[in-house]
Amino acid sequence: MQRSPDNPRRSTAGAGGFTLIEVMIVVVIVAILATIAYPSYQDQVMRSRRSAGAVCLQERAQFMERHYTTNLSYAAAPAPAQCDGSVARFYQVQASGVTARAYTLEAVPQGAQATRDTKCGTLSINQRGERSASGTAGAGECW
Predict the structure, then answer these.
(1) Ranges of H-type helices in the chain
(2) Which of 91, 118, 116, 85 is nearest to 106 (CA)?
(3) Chain centroid to CA 57: how far?
(4) Which is more confidently placed, 16 or 44?
(5) Residue 81 · residue 91 · CB < 8 Å
(6) What are phi and psi of 124, to 5 degrees?
(7) Phi, psi of 21, rounded to the nearest 5 degrees
(8) What is the pTM of this model?
(9) Contact between residue 66 and residue 73 where contact means Cβ atoms under 8 Å apart
């Protein structure tokens, strides 16, 4: 066993490990990083759900256009199908103002998406392909 030069009774063999201060500093750094990263993560999740809802809405608009090409009217088109399971939990698709020559499809946010995505709100598209959002942001930012 090797002895420490400044204290002959103290052994240097077991002098490894971390002090409590070092561990607490690491915990504080991890906590600061988590408080910065988590809101950014939540924002990205909300935006990806919104993009999936917009894609679903465009698919339903294409269905309406195919129906019009076949029947020369939007009026007899069946109600739009809901999105797949991962999107349907956050957006409900509905048709409004359906006539022979016009329609408006809306993707209404549900659950957590409705409470967090106040900037864009309900996404909509009509027979002319005009996109809009009911929130404070413009269609260009939401679509």
Answers:
(1) 20-71, 85-88, 111-116, 139-142
(2) 91
(3) 16
(4) 44
(5) no
(6) -145, 155
(7) -60, -45
(8) 0.75
(9) no
At 46, the amino acid letter reads M
**CB distance 64 to 105 below 8 Å:** yes
| Cβ–Cβ < 8 Å for 109, 91 | yes
Element (H, E) at 96: strand 91-96
Rg (CA), the chain: 29
pLDDT by residue (tens digit) across 68-119? Answer: 999 999 998 998 888 888 899 999 999 999 999 999 999 999 998 998 888 9
Q: Which residues pair with 92 in a beta bridge?
A: 108
In this structure, the chain runs to a length of 143
Matching residue, tokens 């408080």: 35
Task: Tell me the two tokens of residue 140.
Answer: 């260009």
Q: Measuring CA to CA, how many Å separate 114 from each of 38, 88, 90, 94, 121? A: 19, 13, 8, 16, 7
Q: What DSSP line would sit under 50-75, residue for residue?
A: HHHHHHHHHHHHHHHHHHHHHHS-ST
Cβ atoms of residues 104 and 126 within 8 Å: yes
Tokens of 11: 């052994």
